[in-house]
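[step 3/7] fold_predict: job queued, chain A
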Amino acid sequence: LPRYQEAIQLEQAALELQRQAYARHLDTIEVRRTTFLSEDEEQRERKLAEATEQEREAYEAAADQWQIVAETYEHVMERLPDEDPETMARMQWAKGRAMVRSGAVWDGAAELDDLLFDLSESASSPESDSLMRATREELAAAYYFGARLLRLQGKPADQWRPEARRARQHFRYLAEAASREGADPEVVRGLEDNVERTINLEQMDHS
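[step 4/7] structure written:
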């Protein structure tokens, strides 16, 4: 499908913009670190404001690109034949991931949740099991960042805590599954670290 090839190319561009945005994020951290003890407060605030604005613009560009990716995958799904459920599931995963990364966290999470349910109800196969794992990984990240965003916005605990709990449950499931399957210890440890990060998010002081 021509639109599918287009979606892949757009997705690669979005990944590159996201990489660049993360690099700007690291730049902001470095500016904050190097100017922390600066005696010139005005210069410190100016440098930090410039770095923060560059980071914001970079993440905004990445989010806009991910939105285009999500819309393109939606067009691809509309043209897929009903008798091709495996391809449809892969496209739904790609669309849900793109939605989350565009900033439509909850809509993307809902898309991924629906996909995870459908996959759990279908016959198991190496491909479906792999897609289930990838879906759960994206869901865990979506719920984590969604909960973090709600916390930063000062929302009450009854709004962000359930989302953090969902993230923790998905991360723990992934860590335990990886351990059972004999995955690389570094992979298992990384998943366990995500569980700890989610617990820290729930327990951290709002400041």
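[step 5/7] annotate
The radius of gyration is 19 Å.
The CA atoms of residues 85 and 91 lie 10 Å apart.
exit 0
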